[in-house]
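Aim 2, interim progress. The first record below pairs a target sequence with its structure tokens.
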Amino acid sequence: MAPLKVVTQVSATLIIYFATRHLAADAFAPLISPRKRNSISIASFRAGLLSAENVETYPSDSTHSTPEERSRKAKETWSAVALQPTSNVCRKEIQLNGEAATIYQRSLWEEFSSIKGTYFINGLASCQIGDRLIHPFEAHGFCKSIVFDGQGKVYYTSNIVNTPLTKEERNRNTIINRGVMSTVASMDSLLGNIRNALSSSERDTANLTADLWPPPFTKNKDGIEPILISCTDNGEPYAIDPSTLETKGRLVDVIPKLASVFPKGTKFLAHNRYDEENRRLIMCVYNMVIPGERFLGNSRMEFVELDDNFDVVSRREHTTRFMVFHDWALTENYYVVPKNPAYLRWNNILKFCVGLSLGTDVFAMEEHTNGEFILIPRHDLNAKVKEVQSDSFFNCFHFGPVYEKPNHNELVINGCVFDSYTFGGEMGFDGDKQTFSPIEWGSTGLQSNGSRSPPPRLDQFTIDTKTFTITSKNRVPCVPVDMPTFHGDAKPCKYSYFLGASRPEGWFPFKQVVKLNCDTFESFVYDAGDDQVVSEPIFVPRNNSHGEDDGFLISIVHDARNKVSKILVWESQSFKNGPIGECVIGDLIPWCVHGSFYPGFTPFTTLSN
């Protein structure tokens, strides 16, 4: 029994490590036909005043009128995007006023064309490796950059994130490590079970985020140039050349001083945060403690703040009961973590070890337990950590704006909340059938497999920072939404506008872009069409911008109908009027996940004429 115990504990550790990595409900999105300007305007409202009467819906362009038809179209669209073969592109020049562009508002498009800066976004390579499908959260990383030269041109580059596992699997054209949500062979045969049992549950593919550090135009004592940091949950950060998007290696190898800070094999969450005022990058190291207290498991997190020279400024650790999380937020005084309650299914661990089940079968959400927010003080390492309980269960994978109101002793949290959640079928992935059925998994109306994962809703919590209790909780019930971003994406410490992706039923694939004012709850939704998948929208400030809503919004849209990818652009303050234009950047690519925009920065020493 002793050897079996050891194997069980080690396997469980690997499972949960990797599971929390991609439990990022990183939804996916369909695209826009800019000619079809469909929007939903949600009038201003406050909690207690929300009803269907507050919603004004414009005609939809959907020709698929029944849930079954829309489900079938979503499956076709997402399968086309997810399974698209991946090709590297080396600095493709595109004219914003050329034949690749379709312009709807000329003067605003000309202004947009004068912006200089770079948009980096990470995401998935093809979800088909060899002859087998892999869960989207475990696909190889595929990083893209769109460089705006300020003179009417953009330069598009894309490159696979070449982690050691990715290189080996691409060279052999087969899945080598099964991970937590995927398999290397069918579980219906003894041989398949053996192959799965012998396959590692580690999948370090660096496929979720892309953050530049140190900030552009920084002069640090070691002369370190900006590095694009790519990571996934339960993985190691990788350093990418921001000019070519070639993978330089593990971050700790490229910045050797970090080797003593982060020993080999240290696992991180994908999401980092940036404290602009203090010029700090904050990373989260995350580990599961198995078997933990009373064999219930524990979660251990450590927040490490780095200055622009990659020197450690502070470290703060906290251990709590077993839970899962993917995103976290930063305020002036706190690291804010959603405590999404979960439990271990010890009886399924042996099944996973012998290849009879997926890693997601060894844990589940504990839906009879209320969700909590963990508030970890940033500056006083001796200050007590507070765990603030909500009135019900939640599974919060992504945060919108989170900020303090010091004059009112309040902390405001906007979170994309699942009221119920079943792991393993994200994006409609069915490993046994080797298919995608996204609506079936993420819908309350089309579930044949018994899973329960209704789409996330935006909840706004207010916490009293004197009593550390939740004093109010409001829901925006009319807009299922995920993939939130906002001006600076948590770089400033106060922001009112929330951007996200949505679809009217189910969770994924996203075909709508949402803009929401978190102060007034006024919302606008732009529908791209049934054969489009939208990516996480991003805010691009105007030249000489004077406010957090003074700029443009862009989303990379995956057009499954025309087999192209394009950027769709809105002027932020007139979002409700529809996009101002779009520009094709190339062939259809798999879904883009998380990214960041850097005003004024271009990674090339010279730009071609």
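The second target in this work package is listed in the same format:
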Amino acid sequence: MLVEPVGAMPVREAEAIILRTYASGEADKLVSFFSREGGRTRGVAPNARRSLRRFGSSLEPLSHVRLRYVEHQNRDLVRLESCELVQSFFEAQSSYEVAVASAYIAEVCEQLLPEREANDAFFRLVLLVMNELRRTGGIWRPLTYFDLWAVHLAGMLPSLEACCRCRARLEQGAAAWFRPEAEGLLCSLCRSRGCSQLSADSRRLAHNMLGNSLLT
């Protein structure tokens, strides 16, 4: 969203999730964030390491924030003007397991999402999973849900219904097999040495997670 300009440059306002921050120079921070409208973006938070007046604790990883920033023509980095905290997951990350899970989610966002490409569904996914991590303190169900949906939203999830080699339908309640170099799941007739089994219960769980909310 465009708001009033700073000098000759328009200021944008965006709902965002902080992914990572890095030290830059003596006082600044480099910030990687994922905004609902603008996708994954990198910017500079001036003087953020020296003073908390402008940004406070809002730049903690996975914080849900509202940002104001300026885009400069022909520059990759935007300049952050202000950052207002909407919700914090800092206390939840006092748990080592939740902290590791949160770092993993941020890393997936960094590696999987292209720069400057809006993805509202992925944005909602991250918030949903982070809220569930905070609510329950458990990590495996939220992370499994996140992994399935992240791969699905990226267009890389293979069919769970048919063998990728012979195209035969995989029976409900039956196990399937996979190997890293295959394009999807394999049936019992097409499996080969070195395949790993995906149990019937795991297939059923994947179907349920793709068809229902994490909260159900």
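The mean pLDDT is 92. This observation will shape the mutagenesis plan for the next reporting period.
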